[in-house]
Design goal:
globular
């Protein structure tokens, strides 16, 4: 495993500022999408449809560039595993938890702790040095995230089952990020994404068939949520995240997750009328400062 890390070692520059802002805004809407579609359909059915449609889009992108999806069985296998982790398990768990009643902000808080675990593992897995300044930035950001979501910690839905499912999703997000960097970083992104979304669909499908009734949903809010999830989130936000993982330090790319809960809270306030308190605003500012501190190291 160590040899694989060295083989794919890349420069550890922070992600470009403009792309970082775009990524944070797009990624934050994923939790809003999970809440918006929840009244209309089962979570895993929604996620499966999202993955299947996204795979079709990436297949079209490959064809449009006159490329080929033939990359060898080993590469296909690695991309399927990466997709199962980063898409299937992570997103399946997030949507299941939110649909089970967990507030979108709480779900975002749990997933935003990924940078801490990523920083701990970056050294032994990738040989990536995490500087003291980065650790300080991560600590500041974690404090800011806690401030941002502290008014919601007693909310309904913060129970054992959705918490456990969210922790499984968090584990898959972390593992998927490392797997992406270590084993598929040199595959063409359009082809890699095609196989990774197939991998996500494959792991979600059996659970969907066993746990959920299959039905056709045509409500405009559901269809709009699905379209946003496919085009903006899967085709856009996840592609940016994978680009960050491939071209920069894993720790710095993951640290952007800290800003997601604050942005999610603002969007939830705008769309759903959720209360945004002065403490939450202060938490967002502290989180931003921590991320900026870590990114500059």
């Amino acid at each position: 495993m160590a040899s694989q890390a060295g083989k794919h070692e890349q420069p550890t520059a922070a992600p470009p500022a403009a792309l970082s802002v775009l990524f944070i805004l797009l990624w934050s809407t994923g939790f809003i999408t999970a809440r918006a579609q929840a009244p209309f359909d089962e979570p895993l059915t929604f996620v499966f449809a999202r993955f299947a449609l996204t795979a079709v889009l990436f297949a079209g992108a490959v064809a449009w560039k006159r490329g080929t999806i033939l990359i060898g069985w080993r590469a296909v296998g690695h991309n399927l595993v990466a997709g199962m982790l980063l898409h299937g398990i992570y997103l399946g768990c997030v949507f299941f938890a939110v649909t089970s009643g967990m507030p979108a902000g709480i779900a975002a808080l749990i997933q935003s702790t990924a940078p801490i675990f990523t920083a701990v593992l970056a050294g032994p897995l990738l040989g990536e040095r995490v500087a003291i300044r980065q650790w300080m930035g991560l600590a500041i950001s974690l404090f800011g995230v806690t401030l941002t979501l502290s008014p919601k910690l007693g909310a309904a839905g913060f129970t054992l089952v959705p918490i456990t499912v969210s922790l499984v999703g968090l584990t898959a997000l972390i593992a998927g990020g490392f797997y992406q960097r270590m084993f598929v970083a040199k595959d063409r992104m359009t082809v890699a994404n095609f196989y990774q979304y197939i991998g996500g669909a494959l792991i979600v499908m059996p659970f969907m068939l066993v746990l959920e009734p299959l039905r056709l949903v045509t409500h405009p809010v559901y269809l709009a949520s699905l379209a946003w999830a496919v085009v903006v989130l899967s085709f856009g936000a996840f592609s940016l995240y994978i680009y960050f993982l491939r071209t920069g330090a894993v720790t710095k790319a993951a640290s952007l997750m800290f800003l997601v809960p604050a942005v999610t809270s603002v969007i939830a306030w705008a769309l759903f009328g959720e209360v945004l308190t002065p403490v939450q605003i202060l938490g967002g500012v502290v989180t931003l400062a921590g991320v900026a501190f870590a990114q500059r190291s």
